[in-house]
Write a structure and sequence with these properties.
alpha+beta, binds histidyl-adenosine monophosphate, 5-stranded mixed sheet, about 425 residues, 8-stranded mixed sheet, about 35% helix
Length: about 425
């Protein structure tokens, strides 16, 4: 038997409804916030991600799927959505048409990580990128959008952790102090951190190996090295979060795992003990130099991304069922060969009218066909035999009211529609309404 590659998974029919519901919730909220969808390739030329030889993030240095295609080009499967979005923004000159571009995306990402609960090698992200504004209110908007998605999914116990990395001047001042500080502990740093000490000492603070060591706790904090402009930016972000009633916690050890951030960074964590170590469901921040680094004009930007599997896992753990159960308006039961042919015709009329329908195709017995109607959560069961065909009638049973009637074959579609419309008029059947 051929099995799926390590770190991947199949979304089975019993699970795909939750995905559809998650995706439609996200789409709706992005619309509410006026973000437009962008779809970029799953693979990009490697330099989209491997831009900077000084990049110290694990994602870029250790986790990308890189290969040469048959034409000898260096290709990378996207490990995240931001760089591809920015590449598309620059290549298609989106900045020329609109001063502010608010984009969202959903799709598969690939990282060669050690698989565990909530951490896969192929996973899905939903992300937003707001390009073209340096306003702290935009940082707050992106966080608010994330918080709104979480709320719409019915998740509680989510913590918004936020910090600032300041502007370049703040980070340069902080960088020097950090280098001096960690130089005193060189022997205790892991090889990755020794490398980061040279290239990007801020990233040491995010080290998965060293982070819990005692000397980390007394490391200097960025907040003591912020310029007045950086302090003001961060204060305005927090003020906007407060005015939108978004609970947050300033975490001055938060630096994030990617090298492109400046000013605001944030993470959203779920407070569900069963979640395990991978409890960060979404994260992001401001990245004011990335557009320029990818060859575009200087453009401030801020964004975030959620792990969609982690969102679904969180819903599952708190008992939130997403998505409607399997459902048909009508299930057609056939007794005898002629009935099968006739049911195909009746069902087709109903389907063309927009009703969800199905029937048996395997000449199952009556019991088996009734069971199938049940498994499909049928609103109506229509039973047709040879006698009925001869009299141009069909037996129709409303499974919600238990009323069974014999009606003419032509009446099936209007009969079901009438019932659905009467229910939607009284508001009890929003879910099953025919569009
Ligand atoms: P990130 O923190 O690397 O940020 O990923 C964002 C989210 O993707 C994580 O919080 C997590 O929920 C999910 N995630 C990451 N890796 C995995 C994995 N191996 N398996 C399952 N889920 C995973 C970014 O990707 C940035 N591009 C976010 C951003 C957008 N910043 C600005 N704009």
């Amino acid at each position: 038997m051929i099995t799926k590659p390590k770190g991947t998974y199949d979304v089975l029919p019993t699970e795909s409804r939750s995905w559809v519901k998650l995706e439609s919730t996200i789409r709706k909220i992005c619309e509410i916030f006026n973000y437009s969808e962008i779809r970029t390739p799953i693979f990009e030329s490697s330099q989209t991600f491997h831009r900077d030889i000084n990049d110290t993030s694990d994602m870029v240095t250790k986790e990308t799927y890189d290969f040469k295609d048959r034409g000898g080009r260096d290709i990378t499967l996207r490990p995240e959505g931001t760089a591809g979005c920015v590449r598309a923004f620059v290549e298609n000159k989106l900045y020329a048409a609109n001063p502010i571009n608010k984009l969202f995306y959903m799709g598969q990402m690939f990282r060669y990580e050690r698989p565990q609960k909530g951490r896969m090698r192929q996973f899905s992200q939903f992300g937003v990128e707001a390009l073209g504004s340096s306003s702290p209110l935009m940082d707050a908007e992106v966080i608010a959008l994330g918080a709104t998605v979480i709320k719409a999914l019915g998740l509680k116990g989510v913590k918004v952790k936020v910090n600032t990395l300041g502007d370049k001047e703040s980070r340069d001042a902080y960088r020097n102090v950090l280098i001096d500080y960690f130089n005193n502990y060189k022997e205790e740093l892991c090889p990755d951190c020794l490398n980061r000490l040279e290239k990007n000492p801020l990233r040491i603070l995010d080290c998965k190996v060293d982070r819990h060591k005692e000397f980390f706790k007394s490391a200097p904090k960025i907040k003591d090295y912020l310029t007045d402009a950086s302090k003001e930016h961060f204060a305005k972000v927090l003020q906007a979060l407060e005015s939108m009633n978004i609970d947050y916690e300033v975490d001055d050890s938060l630096v994030r795992g990617l090298d492109y951030y400046s000013h605001t960074v944030f993470e959203l964590e779920v407070d569900v003990p069963e979640f395990g170590a991978q409890n960060v469901i979404g994260a992001g921040g401001r990245y004011d130099s990335l557009v320029k680094d990818l060859g575009g004009p200087e453009t401030p930007a801020v964004g975030m991304a959620f792990g969609m599997e982690r969102l679904l896992l969180a819903c599952d753990l708190v008992g939130k069922k997403l998505g409607k159960p399997k459902f048909v308006h009508a299930y057609f039961i056939s007794l005898g060969e002629k009935a099968y042919q006739e049911n195909v015709k009746i069902m087709n009329v109903c389907r063309l009218g927009g009703l969800y329908c199905d029937m048996d195709y395997n000449s199952r017995g009556l019991k088996g066909q009734f069971k199938a109607a049940d498994n499909n959560n049928a609103m109506f069961t229509c039973i047709l035999g040879e006698d009925e065909i001869n009299n141009n009638v069909i037996n129709i049973k409303n499974n919600e009211t238990d009323i069974q009637e014999t009606i003419s074959i032509e009446e099936v579609y209007p009969y079901i529609l009438k019932y659905i419309n009467s229910k939607s008029a009284c508001g009890s059947c929003k879910e099953k309404e025919v569009k």
